[in-house]
Amino acid sequence: MAGPETDAQFHFTGIKKYFNSYILTGRMNCVLATYGGIALMILYFKLRSKKTPAMKATLTWTSSVKFRCLEKLMSTHHAILNLYNKL
Amino acid sequence: MNENLFASFAAPSMMGLPIVVLIVMFPSILFPTPNRLINNRLISIQQWLIQLTSKQMLAIHNQKGRTWALMLMSLILFIGSTNLLGLLPHSFTPTTQLSMNLGMAIPLWAGTVITGFRYKTKASLAHFLPQGTPLPLIPMLVVIETISLFIQPMALAVRLTANITAGHLLIHLIGGATLALINISATTAFITFIILILLTILEFAVALIQAYVFTLLVSLYLHDNT
């Protein structure tokens, strides 16, 4: 059974001292690193943007001031045309 | 026939009121309380049986694990007596209900796991990685061990439910077959009746074994975490 008395026989150096599958601390750190990695992957996929570059460009253009001015100009033009046709 | 097969597993009610709570509480009145130093024969036998079971079950535990003695003994007595009472004709067996068994399994398993994480956090976390695992297999094995941990209460509940339900269904079916064969062929009906007798004896054994297995597994989960 693993424990402090059996852990004493292992002498690791470097990163293996903290991440190995022999001593209690090493096993715990490997488990926590695995859970951390899974959590990071889930966060990455949740937070990444779902829109394509073409959609992003369209949305940027449609939300810009230039587009809004053009839209207003077009609607004014249509209103004048309708008024003219009525007359 | 099909409707009658599962009718015995429906939650019983009397005059529209559910009586399943009374049925669950009923086995407790069958165990007399010892109130003298030297009791009568029945209570002495009961005490001897409980002592025998508790000695065998708690031998592997340390001081902390032995604080669960009352819980484990109550569990085995309750499941054993409920299973045995369910073998009486036309009776309702609460342990055929998955909801009941999950209600027993999940809190007991969670109790052992939380005890382990609270008092031996490092060892409980290290338990998810078997000693000596090769480096490339570590992430996969951690995931597999985590899944196997969460499967434990489900397996505990479903094992008891399936065993008791299957036994009751078999008795029902073979009993029905015996009755149907009486008018057709007496010899075949007799053979089927012998099978029914053997099956009933088996079900008595299964009733006690399943109670023991449930309690033993809870005891093992506790041992891993204390």
From TrEMBL, chain A:
Domain of life where this protein originates: Eukaryota
Cell compartments where the protein resides: Mitochondrion membrane
Keyword Mitochondrion: yes
Membrane topology: Single-pass membrane protein
A GO CC term assigned to this protein in UniProt: mitochondrial membrane
The keyword Heme appears for this protein: no
Keywords: Membrane, Mitochondrion, Transmembrane, Transmembrane helix
Transmembrane domains' residue ranges: 26-45
Coiled coil feature spans: none
Protein name, UniProt field: ATP synthase membrane subunit DAPIT
Protein source organism: Canis lupus dingo (dingo)
Automatic annotation (TrEMBL), chain B:
InterPro entries in the cross-refs: ATP_synth_F0_asu, ATP_synth_F0_asu_AS, ATP_synth_F0_asu_bact/mt, F0_ATP_A_sf
UniProt catalytic activity: H(+)(in) = H(+)(out)
Major localization listed first in the record, in broad terms: mitochondrion
Localization annotation: Mitochondrion inner membrane
SUPFAM superfamilies with a match to the protein in the record: F1F0 ATP synthase subunit A
Topology class, membrane: Multi-pass membrane protein
GO CC terms in record: mitochondrial inner membrane; proton-transporting ATP synthase complex
TM stretches of this protein: 6-31, 67-86, 98-117, 137-158, 164-182, 189-222
Keywords annotated in UniProt: ATP synthesis, CF(0), Hydrogen ion transport, Ion transport, Membrane, Mitochondrion, Mitochondrion inner membrane, Transmembrane, Transmembrane helix, Transport
GO molecular function, one term: proton transmembrane transporter activity
Pfam families named among the record's database cross-references: ATP-synt_A (PF00119)
Summary of subunit composition and partner proteins: Component of the ATP synthase complex composed at least of ATP5F1A/subunit alpha, ATP5F1B/subunit beta, ATP5MC1/subunit c (homooctomer), MT-ATP6/subunit a, MT-ATP8/subunit 8, ATP5ME/subunit e, ATP5MF/subunit f, ATP5MG/subunit g, ATP5MK/subunit k, ATP5MJ/subunit j, ATP5F1C/subunit gamma, ATP5F1D/subunit delta, ATP5F1E/subunit epsilon, ATP5PF/subunit F6, ATP5PB/subunit b, ATP5PD/subunit d, ATP5PO/subunit OSCP.
The protein, known as: ATP synthase subunit a
Source species: Canis lupus familiaris
Organism taxonomic ancestry: Eukaryota, Metazoa, Chordata, Craniata, Vertebrata
Gene: atp6
